[in-house]
Specification:
By secondary structure, the chain is α/β, with parallel strands linked by helices. The protein has 13 helices and 17 strands. Bound molecules: N-(iminomethyl)-L-glutamic acid and fe (iii) ion.
Length: 388
């Protein structure tokens, strides 16, 4: 099935042209054939013929958002913690254990129903690829269940058995590490592509994290890391040394961290929904970009530190609070996410890429930051199929 999207006022391709990373084309058109993009160019040169056509009416089109960091399979609610934070109580990793208890108590049907509501919610906001982590089960049975449910909605599943040490292992840390790197990994591995660890005070040390990532890698899972979220630490340098595809959060960085990232192909994934929801300082995206680091933006959608699925909100926060230009923020939320997932078939609009597109109800991508909180996604296509 072919589709011509034409009369596009501003097309963000992310195919670099003349030093412009966004590869912007004005008065553009796109031809989709089946699930892939067949042709991209100026409208005047578009293929002719009897092709079903969408008239973008001068509005902006960009690649579908790539949300490379979420925790969407969970039970329960932690609005009370958010409310307490807004009166000055700090965020603490220990809240994760509350969601673990609620998730273990939820049936597959309950978890699946919540997950599919969240997936519908993020699609309506233009996200066409989403990564989903386990990490609220923390038993062999529950982590496997979470990975299986996540795999029903995405190919990008991450094993995060090393989210925190669960309460029942509080006095037996080593036993929990043996479980995560042994039977739990064996059981989850068939459903997952990535292994992640929360390398932070209150969660896992750098040595423990190294061991977990190495065990995952030995089983074919590629590493990614939660690091430097709550304070300075070894997470970023550990991620770079482990060849992680991304290190996520990057809120508290020193010059060595920035230099390590700049000399690597590990993506720094920034999650401004967390700083918004925890009243922490935002990460300094400008410093990273100026050092030559590849930056991605993601939602970190989870019930504790960032309960939003909105990539347009991440773009707006990155522009307003983190020193990014609108073009840099949109690139980071699309091509940056694709880099963080080591994908070349998404995050750009070019022949051969997946037909994952967003049509904004706005003339330019700048409106994503200029009109925060306004639902601007008029249509989205994933693999050539309309989502809305
Ligand atoms: O990415 N940092 C660790 N994990 C999540 C928070 C999870 C929670 O508080 O439930 C995060 O922010
Ligand atoms: Fe996270």
């Amino acid at each position: 099935m072919a589709l011509l999207v034409t009369n596009i006022g501003e097309l963000t391709t992310n195919v670099e042209r003349d030093g412009d990373a966004t590869g912007t084309v004005r008065d553009a058109a796109i031809l989709v054939e089946g699930t892939r993009i067949a042709w991209v160019g100026e409208r005047a040169d578009a293929p002719a013929g009897d092709i079903p056509t969408v008239d973008a009416a001068g509005r902006a089109v960009l690649p579908g958002f790539v949300d490379s960091h979420t925790h969407l399979v969970f039970g329960g609610d932690r609005a009370d913690e958010f409310e307490a934070r807004m009166t000055g109580v700090p965020y603490a990793a220990g809240g994760i254990r509350r969601t673990v208890a609620a998730t273990r108590a939820a049936s597959d049907e309950e978890l699946r129903a919540r997950l599919s509501r969240l997936v519908a919610e993020l699609r309506a906001q233009g996200t066409t690829t989403v990564e989903i982590k386990t990490g609220y089960g923390l038993t062999v049975h529950d982590e496997t269940r979470l990975a299986r449910l996540a795999a029903e909605v995405t190919d990008e599943v991450t094993f995060l058995g090393a989210h925190v040490v669960p309460a029942e292992y509080a006095d037996r840390r080593e036993d929990y590490l043996d479980l995560v790197t042994g039977p739990m990994l064996d059981a989850v591995r068939p459903h997952a592509r990535w292994v992640d660890v929360f390398c932070e005070r209150g969660a896992f040390t750098a040595d423990e994290s190294r061991r977990i990532l190495a065990a995952g890698a030995a089983h074919g899972l590629r590493p990614r890391v939660h690091g430097n979220q709550l304070g300075p630490g070894e997470g970023v340098r550990l991620a770079v040394a482990s060849g992680a595809a991304s290190v996520d959060h990057c809120t508290f960085l020193d010059d060595d961290d920035v230099a390590a990232l700049a000399g690597s192909d590990t993506v720094a994934t920034l999650l401004p929904g967390v700083e918004f929801s925890t009243r922490q300082p935002y990460p300094d995206a400008r410093r990273l970009l100026d050092a030559g680091v590849t930056v991605a933006l993601a939602s970190d959608c989870n019930p504790g530190s960032s309960f939003t699925s909105s990539m347009p909100l991440m773009v707006a926060l990155a522009v307003r609070e983190m020193g990014m230009t609108p073009a840099e923020a949109v690139w980071a939320a699309t091509a940056g996410g694709a880099r963080a997932l080591r994908r070349t078939d998404i995050g750009r609009i070019a022949p051969g890429a997946r037909a994952d597109l967003v049509l904004l109800d706005a003339p330019t991508r700048v409106h994503l930051a200029y009109r925060p909180g306004v639902p601007l996604v008029a249509q989205a296509w994933k693999d050539g199929a309309a989502l809305l």
